[in-house]
Design a protein that fits this description.
- This protein is α/β, with parallel strands linked by helices.
- It is about 20% helix and about 30% strand.
Length: about 180
């Protein structure tokens, strides 16, 4: 199974401010550039995210993942409104069990989102590739993309693209 990360960070490696705010992310310049996001999403069949990421996505208004199954990882009950209940479920399991369950359902490409969730899947050795877009801003503090790992995670650089607005996106395969 392909397990992917597609995320933006500040140049100093944060995915959000200390309070979880992502107001530093570019709002778009009207060019319609999506940095490969739609192509990536078209290749994904299931999203796995942490509770905080789910709550953030719910705050956007319209549910941004319509048509895709979403698994929300949480050890506490998750409020799932009726309008998305057919495609969103809560699960409390370690990353390897999540992958096993979803593979048994036929999932082939998982999109892992949310700092703690990404860290857990990396620590479990389950991430296949990472697509990281660096935004040219220094936050100084915040929620880091990476955290402690039980061992080194070796990556193989596969591509880097730079965009007119200063964003730089790099793709890495996780070496097995």
């Amino acid at each position: 199974m392909l397990v992917s990360v597609f995320i933006a960070t500040s140049l100093d490696g944060f995915i959000a401010r200390p309070d979880g705010a992502i107001d530093w992310l570019p709002a778009g310049d009207g060019s319609g550039e999506d940095y490969g996001y739609q192509e990536f999403m078209d290749s994904v069949d299931t999203l796995v995210m942490g509770r905080n990421t789910y709550e953030m996505a719910r705050s956007f208004g319209a549910w941004p993942y319509a048509g895709k199954p979403v698994v929300v990882l949480s050890t506490r009950p998750v409020a799932i409104p009726a309008e998305i209940a057919d495609s969103v479920e809560a699960m409390s399991a370690p990353p390897d069990e999540v992958v096993r369950r979803l593979a048994a359902r036929g999932a082939r490409h998982l999109y892992i989102d949310g700092g703690k969730t990404i860290q857990g899947f990396l620590a479990a050795g389950l991430v296949s590739q990472m697509i990281i877009t660096r935004v040219p801003v220094l936050l100084g503090s915040g929620l880091p993309l990476f955290g402690p790992l039980p061992q080194d995670v070796h990556l193989r650089h596969t591509e880097t693209r730079s965009y007119a607005d200063g964003l730089v996106q790099s793709r890495y395969a996780v070496a097995r």
